[in-house]
């Protein structure tokens, strides 16, 4: 079904598409040039109200993800050892998966089934809804995503503190009088987990308005941080 014509290219059409990066929580706005049905260039969306033109190198190279020659575009069935597959139809693949999953659930219950949702699929609108509904229908009680391999310690602290591993807290970078950054380097991480694509500019602004920020970590002082308290392993108990 075609989307209403609001003066912008339809999905897949040539032209400039305003989109966003699905690789991390910063969700930077992107401007995507499509030519001859393929992405020709990805640049920052300079009009985006949050990322304000920020984009890291990963966002720019999403073009390589979309057009990777090894990208899986149709179902494959393993026929032997590593790299040995045959192409099958969607009906064959779905029937095969349904038969195998049914046998597993019948013998071991739905708890024997789980799924992993990685990036960039996690930030697509429908992927999480489809996965959650599918697992629920099977009676599965576990699911995994990139946070289990990336931010597990933070999610455990949130669970222990607030009773929910996804109940994130966000520092008030615009108005705080004193910011403490523990164990992080915004110059590298860009504070993506708190959805702050303009992290360094926000730290600069804290210093510019006369407020303070303190970094408790090893390594050099991040840009914009007014105080640093290097902590190495031997000094950890004093930090
Ligand atoms: S900071 Fe995150 S959301 Fe922004 S371009 Fe990089 S990977 Fe994408």
TrEMBL record:
<dbReference type="InterPro" id="IPR006656">
    <property type="entry name" value="Mopterin_OxRdtase"/>
</dbReference>
<feature type="domain" description="4Fe-4S Mo/W bis-MGD-type">
    <location>
        <begin position="14"/>
        <end position="70"/>
    </location>
</feature>
<dbReference type="Pfam" id="PF04879">
    <property type="entry name" value="Molybdop_Fe4S4"/>
</dbReference>
<keyword id="KW-0479">Metal-binding</keyword>
<keyword id="KW-0411">Iron-sulfur</keyword>
<protein>
    <submittedName>
        <fullName>Molybdopterin-dependent oxidoreductase</fullName>
    </submittedName>
</protein>
<dbReference type="Pfam" id="PF00384">
    <property type="entry name" value="Molybdopterin"/>
</dbReference>
<dbReference type="InterPro" id="IPR006963">
    <property type="entry name" value="Mopterin_OxRdtase_4Fe-4S_dom"/>
</dbReference>
<dbReference type="InterPro" id="IPR050612">
    <property type="entry name" value="Prok_Mopterin_Oxidored"/>
</dbReference>
<keyword id="KW-0408">Iron</keyword>
């Amino acid at each position: 079904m075609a989307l209403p014509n609001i003066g912008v290219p339809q999905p897949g059409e040539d032209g400039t598409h305003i989109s966003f990066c699905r690789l991390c929580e910063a969700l930077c706005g992107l401007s995507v040039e499509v030519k001859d049905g393929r992405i020709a260039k990805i640049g920052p969306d300079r009009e985006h109200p949050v990322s304000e033109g920020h984009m890291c190198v990963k966002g720019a190279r999403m073009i390589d993800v979309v057009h990777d020659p090894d990208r899986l575009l149709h179902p494959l069935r393993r026929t032997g050892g590593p790299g040995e597959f045959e192409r099958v139809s969607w009906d064959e693949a779905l029937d095969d998966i349904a038969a195998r999953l049914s046998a597993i659930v019948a013998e071991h219950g739905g708890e024997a089934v789980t799924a992993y949702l990685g990036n960039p699929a996690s930030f697509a609108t429908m992927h999480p809804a489809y996965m959650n509904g599918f697992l629920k229908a099977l009676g599965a009680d576990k699911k995994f995503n990139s946070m289990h391999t990336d931010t597990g310690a933070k999610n455990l602290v949130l669970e222990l503190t607030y009773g929910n591993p996804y109940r994130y807290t966000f520092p008030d970078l615009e108005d705080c009088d004193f910011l403490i950054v523990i164990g992080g380097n915004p110059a590298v991480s860009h504070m993506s987990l708190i959805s702050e694509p303009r992290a360094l500019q926000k730290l600069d602004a804290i210093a510019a308005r006369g407020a303070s920020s303190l970094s408790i970590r090893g390594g050099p002082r991040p840009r914009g941080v007014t105080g640093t308290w290097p902590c190495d392993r031997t000094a950890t108990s004093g930090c």
